[in-house]
Amino acid sequence: MEKKTKPHHCGASKKSNTFVVQLYLLLLLLITLNISTTSQAFNYTDALSKSLLYFESQRSGRLPYNQRVTWRDHSGLTDGLEQGVDLVGGYYDAGDHVKFGLPMAFTVTMLSWSVIEFRQQIAAAGELEHAMEAIKWGTDYFIKAHTSPNVLWAEVGDGDTDHYCWQRPEDMTTSRQAYKIDETHPGSDLAGETAAAMAAAALVFKKTNPHYAHLLLHHAQQLFEFGDKYRDKYDGSLGVVKSYYASVSGFKDELLWAALWLYKATDNEKYLKYVISKAHSFGGIGWAITEFSWDVKYAGLQLVASKLLIEEKHKQHSHILELYRSKAEHYICSCLNKNNDTKNVERTPAGLLYIRQWNNMQYVSTAAFLLTVYSDFLKSSNQKLSCHGGMVGHEEVLDFAKSQIDYILGSNPMNMSYLVGYGPKYPQRVHHRGASVESYRENKGFIGCTQGYDNWYGREEPNPNVLVGALVGGPDCQDNFVDQRDNYMQTEACTYNTAPLVGVFAKFSDVEVQKMDQNVGLVASY
């Protein structure tokens, strides 16, 4: 007797499987569409990669074998020679070829702080090595520039003669005069910011390169002692900086800032006592500032100090730290438009924070960074922000930071990315000597001082070299932007514009990855 078997419904099984796959794909598509329609989608990982490339474009000195920006070549190889000191290296601050110490130091502080706060996210994006290289290019220079305990070389080059020339850094014929601060020509603001940069960088290299971290700390401590003992503004000692990087806020914010970073790097109580004891007399708990920049450090100082409150060992100083926190929150609330009307940061019609006409984006990038860091602090400590306009959760703080970053990347009335090289539309005529003149690698023929102005500066064509990762000065108070090389208020980029974005891009890159994981998990649950 034959054994009866149940017939296989192969066709039905295939149809069933096909239906499940189609349903799965449909759900995935709907989720993807939901993501892209709720807000314009940006690739923050790509933006992070590009932002770190920019620092290679700004390098001075002998370029390394692994230089990725190939339109640049060696430059400034005799810097310091006239003064008998090796000042080769460091960064050009913007579209010219002067090496200004104060903005360079702030750039390195912000790069270091980005890695301290978002190291894991930067590593996940595959950019930690590049970030650390960008920091070390700056700190290697600071080690050279700090030739003795009470001497720091503050500037190489002369802004006035430099601005008469439009030529590639590789062809430089302008003055490379170097200027220093010392006991008779003090500069506490410059010494303080350089100390802060080296202390923050020491935290970055502490585990991977402890010997280097120790060396950085040694220099940072000496610079802080120098700046604190011989107190004065550096622009009072060096008149050459006044037209370019005058220290309007004075030096007290930098000394507090340096002491706080030294405390974080050393855990030495004497630095914390400095921050506490001088909180009032140095303005740390007095100034309620609505900008954070290469000049004014109070908001950053107040935010870092307020984060100490959650540690038990700082309870004895809680009264002063709470005062620091109140000023930090004044800054955050002013960005969120939740202070009293007269104490909020202005915004353009499309919602961009607006501080001032010249290079406004520098204030947007630092604000986005502080907002992002404070949002993480509120979340990890399970707290809310108290503003005049009510209580604010960490999500709202982060959402506003994201709105500023998205504006930078293209969500704006001009539909333009102000991060050069990112997206389909970005500034083509950046006010930058090296980018706007034919690459030295392509044409090694000498281009003279006025020849660059005659043949390259006034060209209508886009720059021959793309200054990838540069954050330009950005739009005016009405969201308008004119992409012209001579419009330096809007089209010039600076290292301290891009530096804070490194951490913020890493954060939002991680947020997007987490969202994608959640959505995949949601689909899988079906």
**Sheet with most strands:** 3 strands, antiparallel
Which class best fits the helix and strand makeup? mainly alpha
Q: Write out the strand line-up for the largest beta sheet, numbering strands in chain order.
A: 1-2-3
- Helix/strand order: HHEHHEHEHHHHHHHHEEHEEHHHHH
Global geometry: globular
| Terminal-residue CA separation | 45 Å
Percent strand equals under 5%
**Rg for CA atoms:** 25 Å
pLDDT < 50 runs, ≥5 residues: 1-16, 30-38
Beta strand count: 7
- Mean pLDDT value: 91
Helix content: 40-55%
Total helix count? 19
Characterize this entry briefly.
The chain is mainly alpha-helical and 526 residues long.
Structure description:
With about 525 residues, the chain is mostly helical. Helices cover about 50% and strands about 5% of the residues. It has 19 helices and seven strands. The chain has helices at about 10-40, 45-55, 100-125, 130-145, 160-165, 190-205, 210-230, 235, 240-245, 250-265, 270-275, 300-305, 320-335, 360-380, 395-410, 435, 450-455, 490, 495-525, and strands spanning about 100, 150-155, 180, 345, 355, 385, 390. A three-stranded antiparallel sheet has the order 1-2-3. Strands 4-5 form a two-stranded antiparallel ribbon. Helix 3 (about 100-125) packs antiparallel against helix 4 (about 130-145) and helix 3 runs parallel beside helix 19. The longest helix has about 30 residues, at about 495-525. It starts with 9 loop residues before the first helix and ends with a helix. The relative contact order is 0.13. The model is unreliable at about 1-15 and about 30-40 (pLDDT under 50).
